[in-house]
Design brief:
With 144 residues, the chain is α/β, with parallel strands linked by helices. It is built from three helices and seven strands. Helix 2 packs parallel to helix 3. The chain is elongated and about 105 Å long. The termini are far apart.
Length: 144
C-alpha cells in the first residue's frame, strides 16, 4: 500500500494583520497624547492653596529675565516684547471667546511691577478670569 506524502506547510508568522495593529496603535497615541502649550520654565512662588485651572486656558508667562510669552491655549507659546503686546493678544483672545480663562505664570524672582503691568493689560482686555499659577499641591474643592 502506497501512502501519499503529506504536503509540507510553510511555517511563518502571518503578517496580514500587522498593518491593522500598527494603524490602531497610531490612532490610540494620536487620541491620547496631550501637548503642553506653554513650556516656559519658571520657578513659581509658594502658596497655601492652589485650585485646579481649566485645561483650555490662555497662558501668559514671565521668566526670571523678564521675557514674556503668550499662548491662546491651542498653540505653542510665542514671545512678545512687552505688556502692550499682551494687551493686544488678550483682546484678540477675549474677542474670540469672552469666557476664556487666563493663566499668569511668573517666576518668583520677577519684580511685582512686571506682573502688575501684565495683570493691568489683561484687565484692559476685559479678561473675566485670571489665575495666578503657584507652586503647591492642587485641590479640587475647598471646604469652609
Amino acid at each position: 500500500m502506497r501512502l501519499k506524502a503529506r504536503s509540507v506547510q510553510n511555517t511563518g508568522i502571518p503578517t496580514a494583520s500587522m498593518a491593522d495593529i500598527a494603524f490602531l496603535l497610531i490612532i490610540f497615541f494620536m487620541v491620547t497624547i496631550s501637548f503642553e502649550v506653554d513650556k516656559t520654565q519658571v520657578a513659581l512662588p509658594r502658596t497655601e492653596i492652589r485650585l485646579e485651572i481649566p485645561k483650555q486656558s490662555a497662558y501668559v508667562s514671565i521668566t526670571g529675565n523678564g521675557l514674556i510669552r503668550v499662548s491662546a491655549g491651542d498653540e505653542i507659546s510665542v514671545s512678545v516684547p512687552g505688556p502692550e503686546e499682551v494687551l493686544s493678544f488678550a483682546a484678540g483672545v477675549v474677542q474670540n471667546d469672552p469666557s476664556k480663562a487666563f493663566v499668569l505664570k511668573a517666576d518668583r524672582e520677577v519684580p511685582y511691577r512686571y506682573v502688575d503691568s501684565v495683570i493691568d493689560a489683561l484687565k484692559q482686555a476685559k479678561a473675566q478670569v485670571v489665575y495666578l499659577l503657584s507652586d503647591q499641591e492642587t485641590i479640587d474643592n475647598q471646604e469652609g
